[in-house]
Amino acid sequence: MEAMTTASVDAVADQDRKGPGRPRSARADEAIIEAVLDLLSAGQSADALSIEAVAAKAGVGKATIYRRWPNKEALLIDAVTTMKGPVPEPAGVSVRDDLVALIAGMRTKRMHHYGKVTACLLPELVKGEEMHKVYQAGVVEPRRDVMRGVLRRGIESGELRADLDVELTLLMLSGPAIAQNMLRWNPAVPDEGFAEHLVDAILRGARP
Amino acid sequence: MEAMTTASVDAVADQDRKGPGRPRSARADEAIIEAVLDLLSAGQSADALSIEAVAAKAGVGKATIYRRWPNKEALLIDAVTTMKGPVPEPAGVSVRDDLVALIAGMRTKRMHHYGKVTACLLPELVKGEEMHKVYQAGVVEPRRDVMRGVLRRGIESGELRADLDVELTLLMLSGPAIAQNMLRWNPAVPDEGFAEHLVDAILRGARP
């Protein structure tokens, strides 16, 4: 987990999860994050989300939240980072399989939940440049960079064309998944086999 | 469409009340729609948007709005439809040129404005099934169907593979534009030449 504001505390929380006797504060943190995600996935916009509502839902006092997160923006970014889980590690055997695994990871069974949360966060993301930057650096770029690494490896190994536009290809792989997660843009495209079909269609134009 | 000043719209509304003046009421409608779009593109979430705020910004009374739109959802859908403009008509010469024109139309100079508006509308779209259906039928499907027509024509003419997955290709063309408009997902992909590069990359795998 690489949230900027609370990285060290997150590391502690990660260690906590391994042992049985977890401190009360880690449980409270989890309840707070879970409350944020529940409210956002229920269609509450990040704009309208109040610290009061989060505190009430998590069963903690407002002060507990403010002790841990300086403001709502930091809490929102931490909640999304938690939701996304750890940055995936590709197996590194075939470029096709790695890309399929990465795209399938964006479209898990919880994708609808994810999409709703991201959708409800969007007004905050487009309103402030600062929030957009933090979101890009903390949430988007670490995952995009894993996929970038797979594409670069494919160019080196000759599985992909030497002149492939890597940045455009990243967008071509992720954009369709984002549009389906957030907007259910094309209901005629089945979820079943989504990652395989998308990756194969893109690879058809990306092979040497 | 330029936003009217509050003063000019007040005058319009006054005249509207006195005389028949249908074109004048049409101008009030425009001011109302423009007010919705301005509020959304400023980062106001559709959730938090009130009819009071729209009325105040448009310089009309709330009753003027309710006479025309039964509820906020209907007003939001009308605003987005207006923003999108008429459904585009492809030239019908080459499939490549038609697709480039359609994608470029999604990424105009106002794209940032569009993206912000759509982003701020998303919480409403994911919250209610009804709103999502109306948005799909009124905004998404008419445009998607134009692009679908271009792809089918390409298959018939032999410009595209006979076994092309049309629905997936629609998503592969639109998803990257949506992700850039709404999230500025990959800042490393330049806006300049976006439509050409994307269409050519997809056609590379879609040709016979």
UniProtKB/TrEMBL annotation, chains A, B:
| Keywords linked to the UniProt accession | DNA-binding, Transcription, Transcription regulation
For this protein, the record's InterPro entries field holds: Homeodomain-like_sf (IPR009057), HTH-type_TetR-like_transc_reg (IPR050109), HTH_TetR (IPR001647), Tet_transcr_reg_TetR-rel_C_sf (IPR036271), TetR_C (IPR011075)
Q: Which domain of life is it from?
A: Bacteria
Q: DNA-binding region spans which residues?
A: 50-69
Q: Where is this region: Disordered?
A: 1-26
Q: Which residues form the HTH tetR-type domain?
A: 26-87
Please identify the protein, giving its name as recorded: TetR/AcrR family transcriptional regulator
